[in-house]
Design brief:
Structural class: alpha/beta
Strand content: 15-25%
CATH topology of the largest domain: Rossmann fold
Distance between the termini: 37 Å
Helix content: 25-40%
Number of helices: 8
Largest sheet: 7 strands, mixed
CATH architecture of the largest domain: 3-Layer(aba) Sandwich
CATH superfamily of the largest domain: Vaccinia Virus protein VP39
């Protein structure tokens, strides 16, 4: 039975010649036996002949349509579906949820709309601002108002804390005693390894760790550092085609 497709121009990056790329992609789609379904295009990922079962997940699709408004958010649909999967796995374990590099809060807002985390603590960390001295790159919404906006986004969730500051220093402002789910997305090797060092003793058996940048060639320094850190602990990382790394603690 035919499934669905998601084809978008959003967030296809690292293109040297965009017109040539899009013309070529149209030719690829036209050559498929089933170009009308089973095709995904977005987030520098093109795939066909897939079930794309997350498009049948009504709760997830509704949350994503409600909250994913920015251009890059519209492109990372599959990445966001994987986060929801991770959260659904994690609620079977003891511990809170942590997101290092929450940015505008969209990903965790979608997760919490779909997954009932109960009263377990959810802690979101970010600098929320950017200046040229910082080693990671800026995002469009970075600025003095972003922290307030993210706090407002979770104002009705008493178990959610939004914490401003540099990770892992900002962990001193609050951190769950146990962690069942961690989303690490800070676009910087040293910050991510420092966060993992600080969280290690709090991960519960079976905790889900998702490394947002692990599979992205642009962030190869992070990829190599992740591999070294988890190899020392005897844990393999699954590199997803979405560019994420997935670890079960």
């Amino acid at each position: 039975m035919p499934g669905k497709s998601y084809k978008t121009k959003y967030y296809h990056w690292h293109l040297a010649d965009p017109p040539r790329f899009w013309a070529g992609l149209r030719e690829v789609f036209a050559s498929l036996k089933t170009p009308e379904y089973g095709v995904f295009s977005g987030d520098a990922l093109v795939a066909w002949g897939r079930n794309l079962g997350f498009l049948d997940d009504k709760a997830f699709v509704a949350a994503w349509e409600t909250h994913a408004k920015a251009t890059h958010e519209r492109g990372i649909l599959w990445r966001t579906a994987l986060l929801v999967w991770g959260a659904r796995q994690a609620i079977r374990r003891d511990g809170g949820f942590v997101e290092c590099g929450c940015y505008a809060g969209t990903s965790m807002r979608i997760v919490l709309d779909v997954v009932d985390t109960g009263e377990r603590p959810v802690h979101l960390y970010d600098l929320f601002e950017h200046d040229p001295t910082m080693p990671h790159h800026a995002m469009p919404e970075h600025g003095p108002e972003l922290y307030r906006q993210v706090r407002a986004r979770f104002a009705d969730d008493r178990h959610v804390r939004v914490i401003r500051g540099r990770v892992p220093d900002s962990f001193s402002e609050g951190l769950p005693d146990k962690v069942a789910f961690a989303h690490i997305d800070m676009n910087h090797r040293d910050a991510e390894i420092a966060a993992l060092d600080a969280l290690e003793s709090r991960f519960t058996p079976g905790a889900v760790i998702i490394l947002d940048d692990h599979g992205q060639l642009y962030y190869r320094d992070q990829h190599l550092a992740h591999r070294e850190w988890f190899a020392k602990r005897g844990l393999p990382i699954l590199e997803s085609p979405t560019g994420q790394g997935i670890v079960i603690w």
